[in-house]
Amino acid sequence: RGRGARPPALFSLETTLVDVVTYVVQSLADGPKEEEETPAGPLSVYRPSLVPEPLPPTTLHNPTGETWLVTHSGSALATPLVQALEKRGAHALRVRFMHDAFAAEDTDAFAENAWMSEAADEVWTTLPSGKLGGWIHIASERGDALQTFHDAARKAPDARISVITQMGGRLGLEAQDDLRDNLTQAQLTGYVKTLARERPNHPVRCLDVPAHGAPETLAHWAVQESMSDHGDVELGFDGDHRRSTKLSGESIEAKKF
To answer: Where in 39-146 does DSSP place strands (E)?
Structure first.
């Protein structure tokens, strides 16, 4: 039968199961409707596309004296991030989410706290007293990347939040080896955009970088973005070029399904 227009009431936040059943029963009682004609000419659709952007402004938030948390699951970016934050005057605390009781021995100069990922929502108890300036989370390469971040974010203080994914610096919009290897991190992009709407008081961003880029360069950029007050939520950086996204219109041939 034809795909006639559905009443807007079916798509309201107040729509109930009774409304849906009533509509289906009434449609069956009315009998089949005439087939709709395939629209003539192309259809307009909108898809996200990458847009080159200049680097963030040099006038940035000053984190001097603030406590910043860096969380990860064994990323080479963790130490450069701590170093970049400390250079700006912040007190940076690094926490590594573990999936078993034993962590690899940490040999660098920055203190690291091991924390079981199953208790990620309690990671905030590791913070010293005082206001949290910001939180930078490096997404796990495991399949539970979204779950770990969600658990921690549920009780996160109101502060600047940046989530670093490693899908190649192009936000998962172009095929790359990094995207294939870290495809599960793509879930975080939509999640972070929703979180940004729920936390309007401070910038909340998803920052995508290559998995094998120069850690110091990527960390410097991620900290710059975390300190910026621009409105972009979704940004990518490949070590040379910074990109955001926009919806671009295109035409496709109408087809009947």
So the answer is: 42-53, 67-72, 91-98, 112-116, 132-138
